[in-house]
Write a structure and sequence with these properties.
With about 210 residues, the protein is an alpha/beta fold. About 55% of the residues lie in helices and about 10% in strands. The chain is globular and about 50 Å long. Bound molecules: cobalamin.
Length: about 210
């Protein structure tokens, strides 16, 4: 990981973030590795927000810097062939965080999955409709707020009650989701990052 990039992201130093991303990209560093550093920096932004060193304006700024940096990594989004099947994902209702979800979408697409991205603040009924329509082998739910853990739990339960869980695995992801939270939500697996998601989905669909 790049210490300079982590620190610049944490300090919201936009110029240094963009310069360092360009340098690392020119050096041939893998896009996912660069994203890992940006994500680490975002973790520090979150801690500073929690400790009241940063306020909402800084959170908003961090999202803007992250998105600009991701745009520089645009080359990650390449092959859109969908030989590995369909992956439905969205951010659970009452939660509008989408940076991590968008990264997962991009990386899954570039690994041969057709991704149906339902967006943010997605109600349970929309997940259920999408599962009926697209019959995905794996469904991903993003959740960045601990206050939304119960929403995910309710959504997973509704998918099960609709009889749609037998052929579909449910992955959850997002900063605060650890294995204990995943168990509470009754998810099949917790994905810590985009690469984990790809590895798990490939394993599950047998690629
Ligand atoms: C940026 C940010 C925002 C931005 C979001 C912009 C956007 N378009 O997404 C804005 C400013 C809008 C925002 C708002 C809020 N936020 Co906010 N935010 C963050 C911050 C700093 C970074 C999140 C992020 O993008 N990380 C970078 C990405 C790449 O990481 P990631 O999301 O974890 O994704 C990776 C993995 O988790 C995984 N993954 C993610 N999703 C999925 C999904 C699937 C299916 C899979 C398989 C994998 C996967 O793969 C990704 C790539 O590797 C976090 C702090 C943190 N450490 O997470 C706080 C944080 C999540 N926010 C927080 C809070 C409190 C809020 C607000 C309530 C603040 C307020 N008072 O209004 C609001 C809530 C708005 C809402 N209703 O959703 C808290 C949540 C605390 C808690 N206990 O729940 C955090 C943790 C900050 C903190 N420490 O206090 N926020």
């Amino acid at each position: 990981m790049s210490k300079r990039l982590i620190e610049a992201m944490a300090d919201l130093d936009e110029d240094v973030v963009l310069e360092e991303v360009k340098t690392l990209k020119d050096q041939g560093v893998d896009s996912l590795k660069i994203i890992e550093s940006l994500q680490e920096g975002m973790g520090i932004v979150g801690k500073r927000f929690e400790e009241k060193e940063y306020f909402l304006s800084e959170l908003i700024m961090s999202a803007e810097v992250f998105n600009e940096a991701s745009e520089l990594l645009g080359g990650m989004e390449n092959a859109r062939e969908s030989k590995n099947g369909v992956f439905v994902l969205g951010t659970i209702y009452d939660d509008i965080h989408d940076i991590g979800k968008n990264i997962v979408t991009t990386v899954m697409r570039s690994n041969g999955f057709e991704v149906i991205d339902l967006g943010v603040d997605v109600p349970t009924v929309k997940f259920i409709e999408a599962i009926k329509q697209y019959k995905p082998k794996v469904v991903g739910i993003s959740c960045l707020l601990t206050t939304c853990f119960d929403n995910v739990k309710e959504c997973v339960q509704a998918i099960e009650e609709a009889g749609l869980r037998n052929d579909t695995k449910i992955l959850v992801g997002g900063g605060p989701v650890d294995d204990a939270a995943g168990k509470y939500m009754r998810a099949d697996i917790v994905a810590k990052n985009a690469q984990n998601t790809v590895d798990y989905c490939k394993q599950f669909v047998g690629v």
